[in-house]
Amino acid sequence: MWRDLAPLGRSSTSGGYFRQPFASAERECADWFAQEARARGLRLEHDGFGNMVAWWEAAPGSAGEGGDVLTGSHLDSVLDGGAFDGPLGVVSAFAALDLMRERGFAPARRIGIGAFVEEEGSRFGLACLGSRLAVGATSLQQAEALTDRDGVRLGDAWAEAGVDPSQGSDLLAGVGCFVELHVEQGRDLIDRDAAVGVASEIWPHGRYRFDFTGEANHAGTTRMEDRRDPMLTYAMAALAANEQARLAGERATFGRISVEPNGTNAVPSRVTAWLDARCATDDSLGRLVEAITAQAADRAGEHGTGLEVTPESVSAAVGFDADLARSIAAPHGWPVIPTQAGHDAGILSAAGIPTAMLFVRNPTGISHAPDEHAETVDCLAGVEALADTLQELAG
Questions:
Q1: Which of 15, 172, 268, 334 is 20 to 30 A from 68 via CA?
Q2: Where does Zn(2+) 1 bind (predicted)?
Q3: Helix-helix angle 282-303:230-248, to 10 degrees
């Protein structure tokens, strides 16, 4: 499965992945998912937003209680991303199903393997868009107003991909719990010398657009003291983000900017920059963004530039079901650890679905980049861990 999926959307130069939602590479991944489902005799369901679930039906005459058991992850990537973020959870889910069948397991509750769309927010800017729509956390009207960097509306992308949002979504209607396996995005398991871990919580995080405005002018003829240069204000804001996050032990990153008119010999008229901020608590997230904004505003006053800050998406802290996490981790001695990355599991948990996450060790500690990795032996340990967990939940 991994060999079949690995070439799709891979850059021949960087080795990274470009699997943006509803573009050709991501649609090829969706076709791969459908083929794997059919090969196992699973019933494939789509919703009106592009999400998919492949169902393994409960054994005839079974009396399982508590609703369906859902696993899976996502198939899209960040720009120039790694191979494992998302797809490892989907591939491992199919492999876990194969392992359970080899063991002769007959589920008393339906088991679904899901693939949610636009988890990364790399094209339309709103992370976990597919799962947000599926649980009703984002409205259809809000989603249809989203555009990508080229000005393509999400509604048009849906239409081109043959997705009909008017159908809505009932994929999660009978789901009683969700377990997402994911490559670890950090070094916790490396430091613990553990192949597998269980998530305790997701840090609150947000994306904020900083619009710095100034006055366009000639780079050669305009004296330095006569300039109203928004690039300088942005630069100070980026330094403030680094300083404030380090002081607080949190995370703050300006990873994307857009400059107008974007000329080598021109003082910019506008710089738009996107801040990604993540903290241990909701209150500390608010304080961090306020501190960065205050420093940027002070500099704007000195530089004669303007500043407007717009929260584009903010996700509150998510505490996963503690009893479920303990029941999964305790028999195996797996560590229970927090994560600073957002996941579809966080959206489902916030919607009231008991949720757990399994992490597989990443020996590089790198994620959202081509060097993201997981060793085969650890991936197989993750498959076995997921199969054991699903059997406990669906048995």
A1: 334
A2: 74, 85, 182
A3: 150
Instruction: Give me the pLDDT at residue 115, please.
Output: 98
One-letter amino acid of 138: T
In the annotated binding site for allantoate, the residues are 207, 265, 278
pLDDT tens for 248-293 read 999 999 999 999 999 999 999 999 999 999 999 999 999 999 999 9
Residue 197 and residue 322 share a domain: yes
Total residue count of the chain as it appears in this document:
395
Query: Residues forming the annotated binding site?
Result: 74, 85, 120, 182, 207, 265, 278, 368
Give the residue ranges of the annotated binding site for Zn(2+): 74, 85, 120, 182, 368
Mean pLDDT, all residues of the chain = 94
What percentage of the chain reaches a pLDDT higher than 70? 99
Are the C-beta atoms of 91 and 3 separated by less than 8 Å?
A: no
Q: What is the tens place of the pLDDT at every residue in 218-252? A: 999 999 999 999 999 999 999 999 999 999 999 99
Q: What is the DSSP string of 128-150?
A: THHHHHHHTSS-HHHHHT-B-TT
Residue where a domain terminates, one of 277, 294, 315 = 315
**In a shared domain, residues 116 and 13:** yes
Q: Give yes or no: residues 14 and 142 share one domain.
A: yes
Angle at which helices 87-102 and 376-394 cross, to 10°: 60
Domain closes at, from 315, 330, 353: 315
Residue corresponding to tokens 């789901």:
175
Q: Of 351, 278, 172, 140, which Cα lies nearest the Cα of 129?
A: 140
Question: Is the dihedral angle over the CA atoms 220, 223, 227, 232 positive or is it negative?
Answer: positive
Average pLDDT over residues 174-198: 94
154 and 230 inside one domain: no
Range of the domain at 344: 2-203+317-394
CATH number of the CATH domain containing 123:
3.40.630.10
Domain check: are 84 and 116 in the same one? yes
